[in-house]
């Protein structure tokens, strides 16, 4: 059987179905052929496929959504954001991400991560990013994606062997759903994870990343070509990323910078993480929300003191920088309630960014899920023994490497300015540990 053929299924439990309006915003239509009440929840007729609700419609949520859809599940993704925001991130596709796209990407066009995933999941086509493909090629009524809907709670009903999920809409109203499988793909700050690991800390690693984007055309002609790393207990990574409407041609791209700075907990960190509304954010301040005083008093002076002329130019020409703190959080298990609830991606383990491999992690979790379920799609109980160990091992492996690189860079005692190969050698040492199979 190829990856793209749909397997046959045993009749399975409940399903809810939704329709969207033409702008893909949520217009919720619950389709019932018969209704009954189960514990105050709405229950619907039995249909021929398992159902999955995915909380979080970013990278890992979408990768798992694609896998489940191809396995024949009816899948619904709830994403709390109301818009797709460019994180300005240059995401490096690693081994498993590449493998994922090789197996599951039907568009076979240039990969624009989020939009390629959406095209393959629910046939959503974003002009400029995904071209030359008809939505009909991938459109499927078993895949729905809703923005502006936050999963606020879930609970397992052991009698029904199903998960009750409550979703809050933008207007504050709530809807209740039932699914066979609940996938928590909520990222590092996951609230659903809290149910299983109350109080699990997401700890500050002691440093943060100032980040931003500059149109390439705003830079001096040679800057993009000659950008170099500047290493003095901080490091800056600069890379070209697609510009407006996915443009990848020279001169039309954006220059993206990620610049790590050690800032101990205290007044300066509080200042950097306080947005224009005076709110102290826990982990990040988005582009456009950083006060100009922070830019002028905390970012620019550091840039002048530490960065090479090319990196400095990028930082100084960034109109709306943003900041993300680097944190550590890793859960010790990923499967709950006999396989009816799973944690994936950063919700399971928010590794530090230095491995540039968290998308790999999302792909690893999704690919393993496919391999585990493809022989018996309806047997979720096998996930604990067959999917969880490898997923946890890979996440732990990434987390350890990321922490080692970050600690070496920010806190290590090493002559960076003398021996520029040292971080590479350190990375190679860590890589000798070998990737888990
Ligand atoms: C500085 C930096 C650089 C990075 N560079 C790279 C790189 O080069 N390569 C790489 O592979 N990775 C990189 N990463 C990491 C990568 O961006 C993340 O690992 C990846 O986005 C994780 O995907 P995720 O889907 O698990 O979580 P997220 O992307 O965090 O997505 C979680 C989603 O869930 C939604 N959500 C949360 N709670 C709810 C709820 N209750 N209901 C509904 N929706 C909810 C959120 O709105 C969000 O959209 C970098 C990260 C940082 C900080």
From TrEMBL:
The lineage of its organism: Eukaryota, Fungi, Dikarya, Basidiomycota, Agaricomycotina. This is FAD-binding domain-containing protein. It comes from Clathrus columnatus. It comes from the Eukaryota. Residues 52-85 form the Pyridine nucleotide-disulphide oxidoreductase N-terminal domain. Residues 204-328 form the 2,6-dihydroxypyridine 3-monooxygenase substrate binding domain. Pfam families: FAD_binding-like, Pyr_redox. InterPro entries: DHP_3-monooxygenase, DHPH_N, DhpH_subs-bd, FAD/NAD-bd_sf.
